[in-house]
Amino acid sequence: MFSPNHNALNDTALHCMFDIDGTLVQSYELDSECYIEAVHDVLGVVIEANWEQYRHVTDAGITNELLSHYSANDQSKYYQAIKIRFLKHLRRRIERQAVQEIAGAKAFISMLSSLGVTLSFATGAWRESAMAKLNSAGVVVSSHMLFSCDDHFSRQVIMKMAHQSATAHQTVPCIYFGDGVWDKQAANELGYGFCLVGNRLEHTLQINDFLDGNAVIEILITFLAASDL
User: Fold this and answer.
1) Fold annotation for 4-27+99-227
2) Using N-to-C axis directions, what is the helix angle for 59-70 and 28-43, rounded to 10°?
């Protein structure tokens, strides 16, 4: 049950945007492992999961940067080959073990939707990958609300596209839920609020999961109050 405070969000102009991996579903390590394996399959090189070293921390951005170093020719062919191998590894892993939601994510998204809060989903993953993980975890997301690195290689542009689509280009306060330093940086650059999910970095607004819906709502109310200052 949610406290009466959640009524403060009724009919309020607010846009909540969500990352996918590590934010709504427990797939951060899975995603990294499958990607590293795919790169090794195609390029024969072993890379580390130090994603923050890349200029654009998206599947498309990282792949483009890798190919600029390891493949001078036929980059589009190698790009597609890495993507195909990655999806193959991912689907095999999901078939063996379903992806789990971040606790409470499904219920929280449903609650926000019932309150009329504008929602969108912006991920640095490829669309097929994101949908496969969400479906495996039982997190229902309308495809038209999801923007991915198939739309653009830059996380900031992906997020901006999601925001503009969800709000019909109106000026609406936006808060982004993410788990990585690149999520926080992108939100800051765009002037969005940011709520950290998990503990992979430090941030003032932080939750471990979505089980305590009232606590997350209090964060949203605090964010809205600050936006009005």
Assistant:
1) Rossmann fold (3.40.50)
2) 30
